């Protein structure tokens, strides 16, 4: 099959979010080909510099479709905030106006001119093909030939293509022809995203249990719940998946749902899971009270990647939280908005195989005394964002000799009172002492600003010796695009941090825009 060519000058749509369920696509142009799977692109409508993206982050601009029909529940692309976002139709208001739920936000009203049929670009084809009745004009042969090319592919390729679809879209392919009728029943990857129908999850569970080919393993399952009932359905579905050799589980549980108490033990007793993303998505002051308490020690023998969001940890001993030491295959750990409760004061990340660690906002039981201890001899990447790092002590039981990249940004608690002897600069320098073996260091401007303010009011902070970075190759300061701060002021602080380091590493100052987290990826 002839591959689609992205030549210089080719109009494209670009995704720079790289993996989000609700990623937008922005219009742009191919400037040049950097490698076989990388391209230099220019954004048409965003004030962003030309950037290099990978081939999975671009797709051709779809051909315009003539007058097409929309009904409640249809998936659509919405032109909003200068990009195309996925949504679904919640209400037809008449006169060419539709109420649409966009990217997990509240519903918004759009004219039909701002909408198009939602499609995905997979293996050089738009999937699924547009159903004929949606096209009242523009019935060219290109669409027909594209549909025929897809149907001629072997089953294994079709199943791979269908694995990128949400479950309800995959099931809809059964109407295309007799050949497609039973293909969806053999899918090993299922993704459930909530729709306007309050019974959609119950229907999804019923289809899995009654219609799916029971002889096929279910390797990958993604569930994003927004229903208020169905605890039993969720438990039954997870139990079914684990019985069918589930390896990758991504589950987001809505705050309105109270799962069965044995759901978490069921998941954490799996011997087959290699990837687990578990999010309870709580919010507000009652977040910790409603979030589940994890076991003091986790035992998942095959697990390589673990993402936890809005869960509680309790101390194992002497105020220490140490739940990860028995995950003997763990490579990547992400903690987001998690809580240390009761008498837990020290978060110990202890794991012999861990390579990548990301911490995004951890709440400790004691607001003014908390500590993070690393016991990770094979750690390569460490990211900590949106955290009260100036109120946390970082220590390590090993020298982190394999550390490649560190990304740090944080903020200061307004209730925190610095003493004259210990300021923010001193705290941050103590962090850098622990991380002195790093090769690539990225820090947020908020840290530079806090250090600068500390130097202004606290002369003792200037006396603290910065570390000697023995392997540092580059240091990057990321500042918000609207920050009106001269670069020479940033350089002055950076030079202080690097005064004991030779040779001097590369220093970069980069402006960041709305998508904050992407600038801290390895």
TrEMBL record:
Stored InterPro entries: Agenet-like_dom, Agenet_dom_plant, F-box-like_dom_sf, F-box_AtFBL13-like, F-box_dom, LRR_dom_sf
Stretches assigned to the F-box domain: 147-204
Organism of provenance: Medicago truncatula (Barrel medic)
SMART domains reported in the protein's UniProt record: Agenet, FBOX
Ranges annotated as spanning the membrane: none
A Pfam family recorded for this sequence: F-box
Record-given protein name: Agenet domain protein
Sorted UniProt keywords: Cyclin
Cross-referenced CDD domains: F-box_AtFBL13-like
């Amino acid at each position: 099959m002839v591959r689609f060519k992205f030549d210089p000058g080719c109009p494209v749509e670009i995704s720079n979010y790289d993996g989000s369920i609700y990623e937008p696509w922005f219009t742009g142009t191919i400037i040049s080909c950097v490698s076989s799977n990388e391209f230099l692109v220019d954004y048409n409508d965003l004030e962003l510099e030309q950037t290099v993206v990978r081939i999975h982050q671009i797709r051709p601009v779809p051909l315009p479709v003539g007058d097409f029909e929309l009904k409640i529940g249809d998936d659509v692309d919405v032109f909003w905030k200068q990009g195309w976002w996925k949504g679904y139709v919640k209400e037809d208001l008449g006169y060419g106006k539709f109420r649409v739920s966009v990217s997990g936000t509240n519903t918004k009203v759009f004219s039909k001119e701002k909408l198009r049929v939602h499609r995905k670009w997979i293996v050089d084809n738009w999937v699924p093909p547009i159903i004929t009745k949606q096209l009242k004009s523009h019935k060219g042969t290109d669409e027909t030939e594209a549909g025929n090319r897809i149907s001629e592919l072997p089953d294994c390729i079709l199943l791979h293509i269908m694995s990128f679809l949400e479950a309800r879209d995959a099931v809809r392919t059964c109407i295309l022809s007799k050949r497609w009728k039973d293909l969806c029943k053999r899918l090993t990857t299922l993704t459930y995203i909530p729709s306007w129908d309050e019974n959609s999850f119950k229907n999804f569970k019923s289809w899995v249990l009654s219609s799916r080919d029971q002889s096929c393993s279910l390797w990958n399952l993604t569930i994003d719940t927004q229903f208020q009932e169905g605890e039993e359905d969720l438990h039954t579905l997870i139990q079914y998946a684990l019985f069918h050799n589930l390896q990758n589980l991504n589950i987001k549980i809505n705050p309105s749902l109270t799962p069965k108490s044995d759901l978490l033990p069921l998941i954490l007793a799996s011997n087959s899971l290699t990837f687990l993303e578990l999010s309870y998505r709580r919010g507000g002051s009652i977040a910790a009270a409603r979030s589940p308490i994890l076991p003091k020690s986790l035992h998942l023998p095959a697990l390589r990647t673990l993402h936890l969001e809005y869960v509680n940890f309790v101390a194992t001993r002497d105020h220490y939280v140490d739940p990860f030491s028995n995950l003997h295959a763990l490579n990547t750990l992400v903690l987001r908005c998690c809580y240390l409760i009761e008498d837990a004061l020290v978060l110990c990340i202890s794991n012999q195989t861990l390579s990548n660690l990301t911490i995004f906002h951890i709440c400790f039981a004691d607001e003014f005394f908390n500590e993070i201890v690393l016991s990770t001899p094979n750690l390569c990447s460490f990211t900590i964002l949106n955290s009260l790092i100036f109120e946390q002590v970082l220590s390590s039981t090993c020298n982190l000799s394999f550390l490649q990249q560190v990304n740090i940004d944080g903020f200061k608690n307004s209730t925190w009172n610095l003493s004259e002897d210990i300021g923010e600069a001193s705290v941050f320098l103590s962090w850098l002492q622990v991380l002195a073996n790093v090769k690539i260091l990225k820090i947020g401007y908020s840290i530079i600003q806090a250090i600068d303010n500390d130097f202004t009011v606290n002369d003792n902070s200037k006396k603290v010796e910065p570390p000697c970075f023995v392997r540092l190759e580059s240091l990057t300061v990321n500042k918000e695009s609207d920050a009106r701060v001269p670069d020479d002021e940033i350089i002055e602080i950076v030079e202080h941090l690097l005064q004991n380091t030779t040779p001097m590493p590369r220093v970069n100052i980069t402006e960041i825009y709305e998508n904050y987290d992407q600038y801290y990826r390895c």
